[in-house]
Amino acid sequence: MEKILNKVNNCKIGSSIERSEDDTLIIGKGIYGDDKGNPPGTLHVAVLRSQYAAGKILNLDTTMASCIPGVHSIIDGKSFSNLSKPLLSVLRIDIEVWPCAIEYVRYVGEPIALVLAENRYIAEDAIDNIKVTYQEYNPIIKTEDATLDSSPKVHKKTKTNVVSDRKFSYGNPKEAFKKADEIIKLKIEYPRNSCTPLEGFIVQSNYNSSEKSYTVHSNFQGPFSLHSVISRSLNVNENKLRLISNQDSGGSFGIKQAILPMIVLTCLASRISGKNIKWVEDRIEHLTAASSATNRVTTIKAAVRRNGEILALDYDQIDDVGAYLRAPEPASLYRMHGNLSGAYLVKNISCRNRVVLTNKTPTGLNRGFGGPQHYYALERLVHKIAVNLKLDHLAVIKLNLVKDKDFPYQSASGALLDSGQYKKLMDKVLKSNEFSDMKLRQNLAQKKGNLYGIGYAAIVEPSVSNMGYITTAVPFKEREKSGHKGGAIASATVSIGPTGGIYVTCDSVPQGQGHKTVLAQIVADIFGLSFENVFVNGELDTQKDAWSIAAGNYSSRFAGAVAGTTSLAAKKLKLRILKIASTKLNCKAENIIFENNFVIDKNNFDNKISFNRLVGLAHWSPGELPENSENGLRETVHWSPPQLAPPNNKDQINGSLAYGFVFDICGLEINPKTGQTRVDKYITGHDAGNILNPLLANGQIYGAFAHGLGAALFEEFKYTDDGSFLAGTFADYLLPSTYEVPTPSIIHIETPSPFTPLGAKGLGEGNCMSTPVAIANAACDALKIDNVTLPLTHSKVHSYITSNLKEQPRSKLNSNKNFIKPNDKNNIITGQGNNLLYKKPNQIWDFLLNPDNLSKILPVTEKILLIKDNHYEGKIKIKFGPITGEYEFSVLLSKLNKPKNLKLSGKASGPLGIASGEGLITLSPMNKEKTELTYQYDVQVSGKIAAIGGRFLKTASNIIINQFFDRLAQEISPEHRKNNFWNLILKCLKVIK
C-alpha cells in the first residue's frame, strides 16, 4: 500500500493522497440524483413495459388506470411521437429508433406508456390496471441466427437483421496466409453482461412553455455528443436543452449513457402535462431494460510461423446490439478497430464486421466498451497458438510484442501507439515474488488433487477516444458527404477569487474516480498552495460550463485529457499572475516561484508577497495591474490533440490518444469433483504513463479487476428462446462478493505519453479487458481443453471436466420428469413435494374436483367457475414480494385416473407477466385412513415476472404451491390442522390448547 500523504503539506502530482470526497459521502451529505428537491406539483413516473420480446400492440386499455385518484395522465408512444423525432443513428438505415414503442414491441421491458401521478406508488398501481392486448410474434434471440435471411425480422419493414456489414483489409493478409506454416482458428462467443452501478437512472425534467426550452437534472454521464441527439429528438435547438449532471453519482461504468431515451420521454411528458416530471429507475427495470454490453461472436484466425510469429490476423465479428441501433452504437465494434493487432507487431489484417439486431435490450456503453470482447478473442487465440505449436505461451507473447524502439508505433489498422516498455513490464511481473509464490501454490494444489492453471493476458488499454472512430462503420464516400469527424476536445476552467480561493470546473462528471481530489492536487501543485485552497465543482451544466461534444466521463479520458486540460488552464492563468508578480516584486518572471501560499523571488527569498494579496489586486485594484493585462482571473482552455484525425480513405483510424499496456497473470484453482473454481492469486502489471495519484489509480484497477472477474466467473444476461429475460434480480444475475474477489498484486512502471499534457494515460478499464481472458486462459491450462465459454460457473466447469457435457441451467433444478418441452428451459420453474392427508383417496379426489372446495383453498378474489367438464376459471391474488398482484387463471384437469392420479394444466396472467404450466398429482393409500399426496410440476414464465429470476421464482413457487396443499390438508383433515408446524409452535407457547 502506498504511503498516504498529508493533503495540506504535500499535494504534488504523483503523490498518494486520500480522496477528499469521501468525508462528505460517508456522513450522507452527497448530492445524488434523488437528493434534488421536488418542486411543488412534481409528477412521478412509472413505466409500462412490454412483457413480450416481439409483438404488435393491438389495444392499450387505460380506462381503469385513469380513474385511480392521483393519476394525472397516461401517455403512450404515439402521443410522444407527435411531438418529437426519432433518435439519430450513426448508420443510415431504414429503421426508426423511438424511445417508446408505438405499434410494435421488440424486447421485454420496452416502454409502452408512461403513467404520471402524484407519487410513485399511485403510478405503479395504475400500471397494474392497464390492460395491453398483444399479437405475439416469434422473436430472434441468437446472434448468429440473426444473420440468416430466413430468421424473423426485428423490424418488419427491413429485409434483414444485419444493419451493417463492412469488410476491411490492411497490408496483404491473403499473401501472409499463403506463406504461413500453420493457420490457427478459434471461434469465440462472448456473453452479454453489465456493470450494475449502485444507483440506477434518475431524471427530473421541466419544460418552460414561454421559452420553449427544457431543463433536465439527471445522472447522465455523457458523452455529450448525445446532447445533440436528445435536442434533435425533442425538436428544439441545442441551446433550448439544458442538461445538468449531478455532482455525485452512485457509479456508472458507462451504463448511464443509456439514460438518453428516458430524458427524451420525461421532457415530452413535462411538455404534455405542464408539470415537473421525475423518474427513478428501480433495479428490475435497470437490469431488464436499461442497457448492457454487446454479446459478440468472433471467428478469428492467425497465420503463423512454427516459432510462433504471427504473420496475419483475420477477424469475422458479429456484434449483437439488441432491438435498436441506439447511439452511440455500433461504437462497441469500432472502438478497438484501429488496434486490431493489440500489443503485437502484426502488419497484415483482414476483418469483417457485422452488426445484427435481435429481440433483446439495446446495448450501449459498458466499462471497457468493446475491449473485453476484442481481447478475449485475440488473447485466447495467442494461447491456442502456443498450445497447438507446443510452445511456451510467454515466449509467443514476447516474440510478437511491439518493441520499445518502434514507438510511436503505427498499427496496420491505424492506431498510433504513443509509448510503452512492454517487455520491461513483463519482465518485472515475471521476476516478482508474487509470481514465484503462484508457481509454488500451483504445485501444492496439484499435490492435493486439485487442478491449477496459470493464464496470461497482454493487452493495450486505450484512453481518450477519438470522436470520429465511430464513423469507420460508414464507407469513406458517405463520410465525405456527411462531413468527416474526429478530435476529442476537453474543456476546463480555472478561476481565482478575491481572497485567493481557486475554483475549478471540468467537462467530466465524477462517478467515484476522485475527480475533486486529483484536480485539486494538480492545481494546488501548480500554484504552490495547500490542497484546501482549491474548490472543484463536480456538477456539469451545459448552460453555464465549458463543454464540447466530447465532454463526459467515459473511455478513461480523465487522466489524459481532463486533468491535462485543467493543468493547461491553471498554467495559463499562472503566466498572467507571473506578469503581475514580476511588476510587484520588480524581478524577472522566470525567477519567480510559487511556494507555501507565497509568490517568491527565488534569488531573494525576502522579496515575496502572499498569493492571496497578489491575486487580490486583480479584484480590488485592477488599475495597479501591468499594461495590457487582461482583467479578471479566469481561464478556460479547450484542448484537442492533433493525433486524433478522422478515419482516412483506407479506413485507418487512430481510435484513441493514449495506449497503456497491461500484462496479467492468473492462478486459478479448480476442484475436479465439484467444478468449484477460485481465483487463487492474481498479478496485474500496468504501464499507464505518469500516474497522477497512485492510491486512486490502484483503486481504479481494483474496481476494474472486480468487474472483469465477475464477467469471467459469474455474470451473464440470459434470454430464453421466447425472449424472456432471466437475470432481472441479483438472485440470478450473479455478482461476485468480496469473499470471491481476491486482492490482486499490482505492479507499475511509468512510460510517459508524449501526447497528453501530463504524460498520463487512462487505467480504469484495462482489467475489464484483460482479466476475463487471463482467467479463461488459466482455466484452459488447468483443464487441458481447447476452449471455454464465459461465465465459468461451477456447473459449467464441472461439465468440462466430465467430458464437456452441456451446462445445467442455473435457474432450474433437476426433477424426475419435465412436462413442458420448450426449446429453452431456462425460464422453467420445477418442483415436487408431498403431503400426508388423513382421508381416503376417494374422499380427496372428490374434494379436489369440487370448485367450491377449490375456492376455499386458493387465494381467490371471486368464486371459481366451472366452465365445462374439469375446466375451471377464476382470479387469484398472490401476496409474495415482487410477484404480488392479481392474476386471472384457467385450469384444466385431464388424464383422470380415479382415485390414483390426474394431470393439471393451467395458465395465469396479470400485470407482471404470464405463467403456464403442467403438473401431476398422485394419491397413494398408506393405510385405511391415510393417503400420501405427491405432486410435481413445471411452470414456464414470461414477461416482467421472468426477469425476477429463477432463483427467486423457484423459492416463491415452492412456497405458494406448498401453501395450497397445506390448505388442502387443513380443509380435508382436521388432524393436519391440529398438527401443522404453526399450530405446534402456538401450542408450545400456550396460545392455543
Chain-wise SSE layout:
Blueprint: H1 22-26, E1 43-49, E2 55-61, H2 63-66, E3 71-76, H3 77-81, E4 104-105, E5 111-117, H4 120-128, E6 131-136, E7 162-170, H5 173-179, E8 182-190, E9 202-208, E10 213-218, H6 226-234, E11 241-245, H7 260-273, E12 277-280, H8 283-290, E13 295-304, E14 310-320, H9 331-334, E15 348-356, H10 371-388, H11 393-400, E16 409-410, E17 416-417, H12 422-430, H13 433-447, E18 451-465, H14 476-482, E19 490-496, E20 502-506, H15 515-527, E21 534-537, E22 540-541, H16 557-585, E23 592-595, E24 598-601, E25 604-610, H17 611-620, E26 634-639, E27 656-670, E28 677-687, H18 694-713, E29 745-749, H19 766-783, H20 794-801, E30 828-837, H21 841-848, H22 851-857, E31 865-868, E32 871-878, E33 885-897, E34 901-910, E35 913-927, E36 930-942, H23 944-947, H24 950-972, H25 974-979, H26 981-988
Parallel strand pairs: 1-12, 10-11, 14-15, 20-21, 28-29
Antiparallel strand pairs: 1-5, 2-4, 2-6, 3-5, 7-15, 8-13, 9-10, 9-12, 11-22, 13-14, 16-17, 18-27, 19-20, 19-26, 23-24, 24-25, 27-28, 30-36, 31-32, 32-33, 33-34, 34-35, 35-36
Helix pairs in contact: 6-7, 10-11, 10-19, 15-16, 18-19
Within CATH, the superfamily of the largest domain carries the name: Aldehyde oxidase/xanthine dehydrogenase, molybdopterin binding domain
- Portion in strands: 25-35%
CATH-defined fold name of the largest domain: Aldehyde Oxidoreductase, domain 4
Overall number of domains: 4
CATH architecture of the largest domain: 2-Layer Sandwich
Pick out the low-confidence regions: 4-9, 805-826, 976-993
Distance between the termini: 65 Å
The helix fraction, in percent, is 25-40%
> What's the CATH class of the largest domain, please?
Alpha Beta
Largest sheet, strands/sense/barrel: 8 strands, mixed
- The strand line-up of the biggest sheet is 3-5-1-12-9-10-11-22
- Counting helices, strands and paired strands, the structural category is alpha+beta
Overall average residue pLDDT: 90
Question: Whole-number radius of gyration?
Answer: 32 Å
Give me the number of helical elements. Answer: 26
Shape estimate: globular
